[in-house]
Structure formats: structure tokens, C-alpha cells
């Protein structure tokens, strides 16, 4: 981890997995005035650009250029967060792998395996690692994002892995209603992200929703009972 800014014991901590671009970056910027941001993503350059925008808002961030599919790296990250801050107030999981679209009978096995590893298995591991950090906070909350891809033609790899992720998250939400942490699921409108551009090249992006607007809606959702 690279620390970019000073924090103290009273800071709220927001862990954002998939923070470098799109919705994850928009959430980091929206939370920056009230939270110290732990920004996780594979792309160092994009994280550094995000850090500049967070600093411009008077906030601070710790940059973690890591792959969420790397089990050892995620274990080390969460242990480091515990050792330094002892808790996480909000975990927003936006990291996702989008395999190339293909008919279900022609899905590349490597693409399918990577989708399941990054979108389902990594999410399960992160729930295991992050849950204690959320329970150590006063009102620890996890925020996940659903979409309509499961079952859509040609989205077999992405859709199956996303459906598995959300089934896991919904089970976790049900299991923790009386004990915490709180688990919230948002469903943003389609946004002009890099992932969507790979799925729909040449699409008119003008009608798509702004990641910053969808981030605000998701954070507003957290204020509801």
C-alpha cells in the first residue's frame, strides 16, 4: 500500500475495490470529504490520478495497486488495514472482470474460469477478509452492485459469474440482518464505463448515466433504514 495523506483515529475508512475508474472512482471522490479512502485497483496510473482528485477535494487516500484475484495480496491488505486503522466503515465492491461476449456453446474455458475467479471466488474471499473489519466499526456497511446481465444472450461468462456473486451477497445480507455488518445492494443505470464499451463498441454513450450521479444515488441508498 502507498499512503498518500495523513489520517487519524477518528477518520471514517472507506475501502473501495475497483477504485481506479468508472463507478468505483466516482464513489471514492464522493466519499473523500468524509472518509479516508483505501483505493484498490490493478492500474497504478489511474489510482494516482484518482488520488490527485481526492486531494483536490481536501481528502486523503491510501493507494493499493493490487489484483483482487490475488488471494495472498488481499489477505495482506486486510491485515494491514486492521493493523493501521482497526476497522472499515464502508466497503464498496465495484471490481469486475468482463470476459469477451460469446455464444454459450463457444465460451473460452479460460475466459469462463477467469470470470468465476474474479467475480465470484474473489468476492467470497473478500467477504471473509473484510467482514471482521466491518464488524469492528460502529455501523460497518458493505455495498455491492447488481445488473441485468445474467441470462442475456452472449453474456454467459460474465452473467454466470455475476449471478453467482449476487447469490452469495444476498445470502450474506440475509445472514447478517441481526448481527451486522449491513449489506446493501444497489442497481445503477448503464454508465459509459470501459467495461460497457468492451461489451457494446460503437454504442451512443450520450444517453448513459453519469458514474458520479449513480455513485450519489448509491450513497443516498445507504441513508435509508
TrEMBL record:
Oxidoreductase recorded as keyword: yes
One Gene Ontology molecular-function label: oxidoreductase activity
Cellular component, GO annotation: membrane
Biased composition (Basic and acidic residues): 202-219
Keyword Membrane (UniProt): no
UniProt keyword annotations, A-Z: Oxidoreductase
Region annotation Disordered: where it falls in the sequence: 202-225
Similarity-based family: Belongs to the short-chain dehydrogenases/reductases (SDR) family.
Protein name as annotated: SDR family NAD(P)-dependent oxidoreductase
Lineage, top ranks: Bacteria, Pseudomonadati, Pseudomonadota, Alphaproteobacteria, Rhodobacterales
Amino acid at each position: 500500500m502507498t499512503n498518500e495523506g495523513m489520517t487519524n483515529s477518528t477518520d471514517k475508512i472507506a475501502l473501495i475495490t475497483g477504485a481506479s475508474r468508472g463507478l468505483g472512482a466516482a464513489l471514492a471522490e464522493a466519499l473523500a470529504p468524509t472518509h479516508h479512502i483505501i483505493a484498490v485497483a490493478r492500474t497504478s496510473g489511474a489510482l494516482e490520478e484518482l488520488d490527485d482528485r481526492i486531494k483536490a477535494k481536501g481528502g486523503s487516500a491510501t493507494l493499493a495497486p493490487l489484483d483482487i484475484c490475488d488471494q495472498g495480496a488481499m489477505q495482506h491488505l486486510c491485515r494491514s488495514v486492521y493493523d493501521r486503522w482497526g476497522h472499515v466503515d464502508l466497503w464498496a465492491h465495484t471490481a469486475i472482470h468482463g470476459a469477451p461476449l460469446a455464444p454459450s456453446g463457444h465460451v473460452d474455458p479460460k475466459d469462463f474460469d477467469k470470470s468465476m475467479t474474479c467475480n465470484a471466488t474473489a468476492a467470497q474471499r473478500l467477504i471473509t477478509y473484510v467482514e471482521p473489519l466491518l464488524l469492528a466499526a460502529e455501523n460497518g456497511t458493505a455495498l455491492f452492485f447488481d445488473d441485468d446481465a445474467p441470462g442475456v444472450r452472449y453474456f454467459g461468462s460474465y452473467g454466470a459469474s455475476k449471478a453467482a456473486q449476487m447469490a452469495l451477497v444476498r445470502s450474506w445480507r440475509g445472514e447478517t440482518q441481526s448481527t451486522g455488518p449491513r449489506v446493501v445492494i444497489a442497481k445503477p443505470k448503464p454508465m459509459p464505463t470501459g467495461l460497457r464499451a468492451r461489451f457494446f463498441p460503437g454504442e451512443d454513450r450520450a444517453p448513459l448515466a453519469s458514474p458520479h450521479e449513480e455513485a450519489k444515488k448509491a450513497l443516498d441508498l445507504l441513508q435509508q433504514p
